[in-house]
Structure prediction request, 477 residues.
Amino acid sequence: MTIYQNLIGGEWVGANATKNINPSDTNEVVGLYADGSAEDTRNAIAAAKAAFPAWSRSGIWERHVILKKAGDEIMARKDELGALLAREEGKTLPEAIGETIRASQIFEFFAGEALRLAGETIPSVRPNIGVEITRDPLGVIGIITPWNFPIAIPAWKIAPALCYGNTIVFKPAELVPACSWAIVDILNRAGLPKGVLNLVMGKGSVVGQAMLDSPDVAGITFTGSTGTGKRVAAASIEHNRKFQLEMGGKNPMVVLDDADLNVAVEAAANSGFFSTGQRCTASSRLIVTEGIHDKFVAALTAKLETLVVDNALKSGTHIGPVVDERQLKTDTDYIEIGKKEGAKLAFGGELITRDTPGFYLQPTLFTEATNQMRISREEIFGPVVSVIRVKDYEEALATANDTPFGLSSGIATTSLKHATHFKRNAEAGMVMVNLPTAGVDFHVPFGGRKGSSYGPREQGKYAAEFYTTVKTSYTLA
Ligand code: ADP
Prediction:
């Protein structure tokens, strides 16, 4: 089998490789992907540093053309790349193709942004002096990504980094190197100069750590677990480096008595279980007022009965497998914890077998949960959801906000008064009214508060906050 190699300073290198396994069929090897070393990482950082002066001064048309070419190729290959994504990560084919289209749209958006780079000219408070405010690129950006969005998250970090004139060392998650390799290959062929974008696949503890330890990495953008995020933060402060963290969520979805039952059930099923619950914006706490509680649980349970868990590539599958054995163990451990804590297992909870060997778990719904239980406080990152019964809107809002996290927060209601109050008072970076807590646009800010995020928002125009540093220049005229 060919080895998909790392890209360092414009050369494909690396002989040691790790198997990329399909979670829908563990007999299938998606491919062999290079296992980078700390030395590879240091070489990649040196290449990115050497490429920075020229790329930071490159013309905006050159950046536009490369980003646009990449976006166009990803779109043209959406079915093939979507299938690759579904094979390596386990989300369903329609979800995987949708994510691939999203990656293309992100490149198209930043291709446009490259042509709109601008600053401000402001009169000084002193006579005969002009003030200009401009944005400079940061330098070498370290990009560390998780496994749950193998093409969209790399796209939403790589595209703005390049657009604003930075160079990159990119380390994808160990479980999903294939889509990352594909987009790096596409950008490389689109005409990026050598060293501008370097790919080092490999272990977090080796490649990721070598990035954290380098004084030459000017900024790190990280999406992943809270524990690793804290390491990124500590190491970055040590080096006086800019950093941006997107970590976990325990996103609430409030369902009020006056909700449209169908809207609420569709939003809850999507938020909790689609993409196998493996989205940081997934809703794992359904906070339901007394008057609708029993009807809602009955309707949601009936909906779960209809969802097909199977091989991600099979047509008709609604929920693919869990990503790997380790995550499956986390999910089943939490199911046991939920039972011991006294929540009632209302649906699912069992492993299932399918034609192909994979990590299949039923969508799992707990009722009679409290907000103090571990299943309601800790991020599980699987298809495991709890229903918490509350008296009224005020208790629902207080419960929704009573969490260490603050990424996304949703409400299902037909009351304008409650929707408006909730938008104002939800302690989250993103608020959804009558919509799933997951599922966001690519041209507007993405990010959270409290334990979920740190640093500037990602995506849209707001991405410039992280990928640039502001300069104020004064000129005596
Ligand atoms: P998960 O538990 O969901 O895999 P992680 O936070 O471990 O989440 O992984 C997110 C990303 O962080 C992955 O690319 C992983 O390889 C990387 N990573 C893990 N450990 C480290 C580390 N010590 N330093 C830098 N990156 C790391």
